[in-house]
Amino acid sequence: MFDDVKLDEQTIQRIIASDYARRSIPSVPNVQIMRKPLLDSNGVVLMGNGYYEADLFVLRLGVNERMTEFEIKISIEDFRRDFKKYHYHDGAFVDLLYYAMPDEMFKKHREEIIRTIPDYVGVAVIEGNTMRIEKKAVKQKINTDFTGEIRTCCELKSEIRRLMRIGCTRWCLWVPREILTK
What we know:
- There is one protein chain.
- 33% of the residues lie in helices and 28% in strands.
- It is of the alpha/beta class.
- A six-stranded mixed sheet has the order 1-4-5-6-7-8. Strands 2-3 form a two-stranded antiparallel sheet.
- A hairpin with a 5-residue loop joins β4 (51-60) and β5 (66-72).
- The radius of gyration is 17 Å and the shape is globular.
- It starts with 8 loop residues before the first helix and ends with a helix.
C-alpha cells in the first residue's frame, strides 16, 4: 500500500490511522487540541487553556473515553525542534502520547530519542506500511480543566463530537478524486 512512498507526515498519519481503523478506532489528523493549563508550584494558573495542533489524534471510544496523540517526526532536526517550543504536548483529554517516526530515523538516533523524551511518552516506528510500538506510553491523568477540577462527562463528549466532525471532514478531503468520481 505505502511500500514505495517516502515517509512524509501525511503518509505516516495514514499508516497509523489504518492500523487503528482495522480495529474500528477513529482518528483525526492535524487537529487543534485543548491544552492543560500551566500552573506554578503553588497551583496558581500562569496560563489558561489554549490550543495546539496535534499531528494525529486517536479516539479510543467506549466505557472510558480515552485519547492518544501521535506527534509525527520525519527527521531528527524536526524532533529536536519540538523540545524548543513553549508548550509540550499536554492535551487536556490526552492520556497517551507517542512520537511516531520512520524506522531508519529511530535506529540511527535511538539513544538520543529515548534520552530526550519524558518517561511517560512512547515511541511508534513506521517501517514500510506498518507501525510498531518500540516504547509503550504510560497513561497520564486526564480530564482536568484549568482549575484542576474534573471535567464533566458532557465536556468530554462535546470535545469528542467536535473532533469526530473535524475528522470526517479531514479524511474525506484526503480521498483521491478518482475514487470520488467512480
